[in-house]
């Protein structure tokens, strides 16, 4: 499908970051490899935190929710782009685009909310250990996760409803690998995108409130840790908290830069890097970051791989 045909079509043309079809194919294959690696890593974490009875604490319960969000987020954007690129099309219908906006913005907010809840869980575990079982009871954890998913649905609905009010005209070419809102705003015929800006402002305020909560939690955590007499205890706390803090900082900084940066008429290398940083890398790297510094996860993974049932199924596969 050519760019000339896009003026009369209701959908959009995802160009990625190059007009060259060979480069688009290469980019699609790299994205496919990243998707497979990220999906496998998140699926492993979901599996071991579900099956291992020693990983049933609130920390691993929330980690399983984070992996579920990451797996879903990858599946919303990457497969559609890979399929359309390999088919030499790049076309995405209007309905598919709106669905991508709903799920991507909803899942992104849910991830932010989950990271906030995870920081509070670490704060209670380290600063209020005697009250941990009462404050982070299974019922309260379930309600927290339900609130996370509900707030994500509200966020996705607000962004989608405001985007539906925009009228698009001209060549509906998106220099991105998915329907990203900043890129869509450039295709607006008039100033009917103020609804999207209002929603973005509101969600930015909410994200800042989450950041303040996370900063407070980690400020209290590090203050408590530095007073610990045991070096081993400090090391254990840092091994669980530092990866979480890295994930939060990386996710927030790249997302904010991408959405606050003025969009240019032509794609730049910075646009490509930022979009990859806040869409592909966090959900792909989260399993690696959490598992490499978490001895309990590594032991659970080894136990799963060396279990008799796993070995039996592997032998049946080969024979």
From TrEMBL:
SUPFAM superfamilies: Family A G protein-coupled receptor-like. The chain crosses the membrane at residues 25-49, 101-120, 141-161, 193-216, 237-260, 272-292. It is a multi-pass membrane protein. It holds the Pfam family 7tm_4. GO terms for biological process: G protein-coupled receptor signaling pathway; sensory perception of smell. It is found in: Cell membrane. Residues 41-290 form the G-protein coupled receptors family 1 profile domain. GO terms for molecular function: G protein-coupled receptor activity; odorant binding; olfactory receptor activity. Signal peptide: none annotated. InterPro entries: GPCR_Rhodpsn (IPR000276), GPCR_Rhodpsn_7TM (IPR017452), Olfact_rcpt (IPR000725), Olfactory_GPCR (IPR050516). Keywords: Cell membrane, G-protein coupled receptor, Membrane, Olfaction, Receptor, Sensory transduction, Transducer, Transmembrane, Transmembrane helix. One of its GO terms (cellular component) is membrane. Odorant receptor. Belongs to the G-protein coupled receptor 1 family. This is Olfactory receptor. The lineage of its organism: Eukaryota, Metazoa, Chordata, Craniata, Vertebrata.
